[in-house]
Amino acid sequence: MTMRALIGGRGQDWTVERIDLPERLGAIRVQVMAAGLNRADLYALDGTYTANSQGEGPFTAGMEIAGVVETSSLLAPRLPVGTRVMGITAGAFADYALCHPRMLVPIPDGLGFEEAATLPVGLITEHDALVTQAGFEPGHSVLVVGGTSSVGLVGIQLAKALGAGTVVATTTSKDKTAVLLEAGADIAVDTRTESLVDAVLAATGGKGADITLDHVGGHLFTTLASATAVGGTIVSIGRLAGASTGIDLDTLAFRRQKLIGTTFSVRTRSELGDVVAALQEEVLPAVADGRITPRLDTVFPADRAKDAADLLRADGATGKVVLSFADAHTGPAPAPTATANMFGGIAQIGYVVRDIEASMRDFVACGIGPWFHLRNVRPADFTYRGQPSDMAMDVALANSGDIQLELITPVDDAPSMYRDFLDAGHEGVQHVAYWSENYQDLYDRALAAGFTVGQEGRIGDDGRFAYLETGHHPGTVIEISDVGGSKKLVFDLIRAATAHWDGSHPVQRVDAALIDGGPSAMAEMMEALG
Q1: 94, 32 in Cβ contact below 8 A?
Q2: Which of 104, 305, 391, 520 is the Cys-Cys partner for 416 at CB 3.0 to 4.6 Å?
Q3: Structure letter (DSSP) for residue 332
Q4: What is the CA radius of gyration of the chain?
Q5: How many Å apart are CA 337 and CA 154, to the nearest integer?
Q6: Neighbour-count burial of 493, counting CB atoms closer than 10 A to its CB (0-12 exposed, 13-18 middle, 19+ buried)
Q7: DSSP-based three-state secondary structure for 237
Q8: pLDDT in tens, 385-434
């Protein structure tokens, strides 16, 4: 299969091409619904920015996505197929994108895909700079230089959500000061007409900002040391006004400040994974409860990517520019397959054998025992393919660690899946069993997922069981079983007997009424266990 992708490296603009759907062991494939546009995407297009993940030659552009997990990864059971996710990855400008599991987080309820696509880069950039790099603590004053950029707007909200004191933010347009205040800034400064240093000192009682987050660089950077507090930290994040600047080293030294430069382009996958993971404790809850909200400027369809890039180049956006890939995904959303992780872990392996005595001896010779042998067990309400059956069987139970082994030999010709197994010429593993203390819920979910029952019945008052028609080849039948009440107590005692078995008395013969949990049967069981 192929997909649509925006390819860079072939000229001054992206080209729309058909390429193969990406695949990689361990990766999550996301059905991209929306992708955020970043300055770094423009720099990569003109060749001035190359991330570690970008190879030589033409490349699928983009780094910020929101969509739906289409193919899951065993490395991320928390993100099954159908999960709405947002995150960062190479190759985001395409109908599908491969993502490392650590680079994705669930989209909070209530956010659409286009809104979610505005957040990942801003959240990781600003949280890493503010908290991890600068050591932010509640009460710190924060200066956000370049506050009307999509990342800067996230930085303002993040600082307030985490408990900042005074937040000052800058713009170069008087018309945009209201946007800064609406995002949560206490003071908005138009640096074209106002002195940044004077405004910050006035807002902080002459102290200066404890932390300065700079997204601009250029000539304005020369003033930041004077606007930052003694012992404060300046973090250089972006260079919208250029990478060349000057700084008064005396001011930096006399005010004992830290100057930190940061970028994600050279970080390893492991480092980026740590940055994304750091959002879990405080940042994602702030998004979920509305303290941090998306700042979406314009959404363009994927075939108008050039218009989106031109808007960003012209500094015409306040907030995020987003590309939509939703037109490629008009069918039903991906959904988990019916069987994936439905039943939990295997609790029992069931063998159907012709000679139960011989089978017990063989297992004992392998060091597995003691065995508890029950004769002529007749399940109550037993049905085979919907019809009553007077099936009787001999049963033997033992444990190997936490896994219970069950041996079954039908002792009459009444219809059962056990009799079918032997009549087909098979002998050995016939089923694997999953136990649940909420049997009815598991039973209902199995039927809703399309499974059919081959046989079912009840042992005692609370020991329901059902065998599903999953015999694709010998040994693949699934049994689901209620393991509450007296049945659980019996099974726990059998497990305990295994843990303390010294090899003596390898076979214990007990009355079939044992499984019913009656007082006499339980007393017999306790006596057998010593």
Answers
A1: yes
A2: 391
A3: P
A4: 33
A5: 37
A6: middle
A7: coil
A8: 999 999 999 999 999 999 999 999 999 999 999 999 999 999 999 999 99
364 three-class SS: helix
Asked if 5 contacts 94 with a C-beta cutoff of 8 angstroms, the reply is: yes
Residue 267: how many CB atoms within 10 A of its CB?
A: 16
| 317 and 298 Cβ atoms separated by less than 8 Å | yes
Question: What are the structure tokens assigned to 401, written together?
Answer: 């660690």
15 and 6 Cβ atoms separated by less than 8 Å: yes
User: 150-174 b/e with 16+ CB inside 10 Å = b?
Assistant: bbbbbbbbbbbbbebbbbbbbbbee
- Rounded to whole angstroms, how far apart are CA atoms 423 and 82? 43
Cα distance between residue 266 and residue 248, in whole Å: 28
Q: Whole-angstrom Cα distance, residue 161 to residue 122?
A: 14
Token pair for residue 185?
């800034």
Please list the residues that pair with 447 across neighbouring strands: none
* pLDDT, position 279: 95
Q: Tell me which residue has tokens 């790099």.
A: 133
Residue 259 β-bridge partners: 234
**Cis preceding linkage at 519, omega within 30:** no
Encode pLDDT of 294-349 as tens digits: 999 999 999 999 999 999 999 889 899 999 999 999 988 887 766 667 888 999 99
Q: With beta carbons less than 8 A apart as the criterion, state whether 387 and 381 touch.
A: no
pLDDT digits (tens, 9 = 90+) for 512-521: 665 555 556 5
| Bridge partners for 458 per DSSP | 380, 464
The string of pLDDT tens digits covering residues 162-179 is: 999 999 999 999 989 999
CA torsion sign, 510 to 513 to 516 to 522? Answer: negative
Residue written as token pair 């996958």: 269
Structure tokens at 428: 């050995």
Q: How far apart are the first and last CA of the chain?
A: 65
Residue 350 pLDDT: 98
- Report CA 48 to chain centroid distance, whole Å: 33
CA distance 26 to 188: 46
Q: Which residue matches tokens 């082994």?
A: 405
Helical (H) or strand (E) element with 144: strand 142-145
Q: Which of 375, 386, 382 is nearest to 414 (CA)?
A: 382
Report the distance separating Cα 369 and Cα 361, nearest Å. Answer: 10
**Phi, psi at residue 162, to the nearest 5°?**
-90, 0
User: φ and ψ at 303, to 5 degrees?
Assistant: -75, 0
Nearest in space to 166 (alpha carbons), one of 209, 196, 195: 209
Burial 339-352 (b: 16+ CB within 10 A, else e): eeebbeeebbbbbb
Which backbone phi and psi does 495 adopt, to 5 degrees? -65, -40
Contact in structure between 274 and 281 (CB atoms under 8 Å): no
